Amino acid sequence: MQSLPTLICKISGRPRRSESERSASLWANRFIVNQRQLPLLQQPRNSYHLSLLRGQQKDTRAGVCRFFSMKKCSAEFIGTFALVFAGTGAIVINEVSGGAITHVGISLTFGLIVLVMIYTVGDVSGAHLNPAVSLGFFAARRFPLREVVPYVLSQCAGAFAASGLLRFLFPQSATLGATEPAGSATQSFVLELILTAILMFVILSVSTGAAEKGITAGIAVGSVIALEAMFAGPICGASMNPARSFAPAMVSQHLSSLWIYLVAPTLGALVAVFGCRCVRERGCCAIPSYGAASGH
Q1: Is 138 helix (H, G, I), strand (E, B) or coil?
Q2: Residues 173-229: tens digit of each pLDDT
Q3: Is residue 119 within 8 Å of 218, Cβ to Cβ?
Q4: Which pLDDT value is given to residue 63?
Q5: Regarding predicted confidence, which is higher, 35 or 86?
Q6: Are 207 and 293 in contact (CB under 8 A)?
Q7: Does the pTM of the predicted model rise above 0.70?
Q8: Contact of 255 with 180, CB cutoff 8 Å
Q9: What angle do CA 130, 135, 139 make, to 5 degrees?
């Protein structure tokens, strides 16, 4: 009977393992299983960390976009403030000084301030300075819709700030440089539509995407504004800019003809987009190329 275990072991072909050997084998098997399961256990954690990283990247990109959007809106606010303060300020000072600046001086003031602002903030926001120009670039598919409303609000805010400051400086001024038709409403409406169409056509032709920032672009846009203000200003005011007319009219409460200077420039900018598509190369006003341009 003492040889029975040996016989059984020989029949089975495997010698019996000691208790320590079986314990070591058990721990080795557990180690192998754990090593195989480790990647599976780590995968959800890695995915979790990856999702967190992607979320942080998205938050960073969103933060950068908001930062640059604030920069652009600030540039539009400052540029439009300068435009309305200098342009309508020239009209107010011409009134209180007995005509010292003259009509030609007022026209040149509008043209020069736009030229200066194009070179100042054109590389930041594109120096639209004009809601009609922003809408025109959107219609030309050069400007995203999500930026149109912030631009227009910034432009109007800058215009109101300028008109409010002029009211503080010159309380005796009745109109604060508000645009009013000298003839019939129809005459001024048609003039404003055509003037804005010409201005927007020039802007679309000299701008890069929606950005007015070239060496000669400021000269071209500023010159056409001064030119149109010279010959059409005595009749319709040559506004070509809803924000420039809206703020002085609201602050001075001269609202009877305001609709002309809100509707006509907007329609004129849309007409210019159609004209640009007729004469420029294919895709000029059809390919989104977001940046920015300027307007009086």
Answers
A1: helix
A2: 999 999 999 999 999 999 999 999 999 999 998 886 655 556 788 999 999 999 999
A3: yes
A4: 52
A5: 86
A6: yes
A7: yes
A8: no
A9: 150
Residue 211, C-beta contacts closer than 8 angstroms, at least 6 positions apart:
122, 123, 126, 291, 292, 293
Closest CA to 72 of 124, 119, 136: 124
Neighbours of 149 (CB within 10 A): 11
CATH of 72-279, one of 1.20.1080.10, 3.40.50.150, 3.40.630.30, 2.130.10.10: 1.20.1080.10
CA–CA separation, 263 vs 259, rounded Å?
6
Diameter over CA atoms, the chain: 137
Whether residue 71 contacts residue 123, with contact meaning beta carbons closer than 8 Å, is answered with no
Residue 163, token pair as written in the block? 């008109």
Q: By C-alpha distance, which of 197, 177, 291 is closest to 243?
A: 177
Phi, psi of 208 (to 5 degrees): -105, 110
pLDDT digits (tens, 9 = 90+) for 238-255: 999 999 999 999 999 999
Residue with tokens 């721990």: 27
CA atoms within 13 A on the CB side of 56: 6
DSSP 8-state assignment for residue 1 = -
For residue 27, give both structure tokens. 């721990």
Give the residue extent of every domain in the chain: 72-279
Segments in the chain forming alpha helices (H): 4-12, 19-96, 102-121, 131-139, 145-169, 185-206, 217-236, 242-252, 258-279
Angle CA(199)–CA(202)–CA(208) in degrees, nearest 5?
125
